[in-house]
Amino acid sequence: MTEYVTPMISTVLKKYQTSATKSLQGPGHALTTAGVLDIVTNGRSESPGLNGKCQASPPVVALIKKEILSSPEPQDLQHHECSTRGTPPQIYSPATPPRELSQPILSVADAGCGELYETKLEGKTIGCFSVGGEMRLCLPQFLNNVLNDFSLEQINRIFDELGIYCSQCTHDQLVEFKAAKILPSDVKASGLITRTDAERLCAALLHRSDRNSYVPIESLAKGALSFHVYHKCFGKCEGICTPDMYSYQKPTCIKCLECDGWFSPQKFVGHVHRKFENHTCHWGFDSRNWHDYLHVALDVENREKYQIILDQLKEVELKEMHKAQRELEHKKRKVRWV
Question: Residue ranges of the c-SKI SMAD4-binding domain (predicted)?
């Protein structure tokens, strides 16, 4: 018997089949491009203003939408609080102008332009487009603001090791970035990197075990509850979680069983030692949603009990985040009236 397929389902499937080959770019579509970013160092890269729709020709008044966050980045609020003391909150200091780069590998641009947003990564604001359900970050801004302590040789090596490919900006996306002052006006080309791959780079460069502090056993509270946890992001990693160590300002509470490094839940879910998934197409990862990736080990007795503890840890994080945001808004209002 032949099943009846409604016209709507047929339309959706046809649209998906058409767009899928254009949005999932990989090594087969890669184009090696050297010196594709003709960025002049005297250009300015300020915090954006915004317009979400793409326009083919300048002048464009850019309007950047703020990304809706489901989980916080604790260090962001501290950084913002320090930056607003004694200074009206509406005034932004210019960002460091992008340095001249040659991108590792660029694949062909996605067909869609997407909407212009700003997102937070490692406490830094990055301009991005929402394309195909994932944020595509401005590559030069990401490299200069987040990975500015690393040489291009170091960054390119990690690109190769992780099998990361970047897409090219379309003309409309480039116009939007310029209008938002994310890129200098005389830049002729730029690249985009998915948030997933940007987080993989941060994990490999910023969150290495040798860059993390070690917590001596004697500093742990006597009788503190600990249990085994794991994640399967980009491979797999196992650790020991000690919830009593967690606080909103210092969330480090998970010890990696392989390297003994200590991580916050958000950083641990991107921490791996295995290279099994370097040639896998990763999509949709966001370390701020660590609760979706972190699990109690399967061989732990009373596993459900410890899973509830992880749930409570996430609730504490959200509660403290909202409290810190309210305090920050209160301080900003006081500054306005001074």
Answer: 226-318
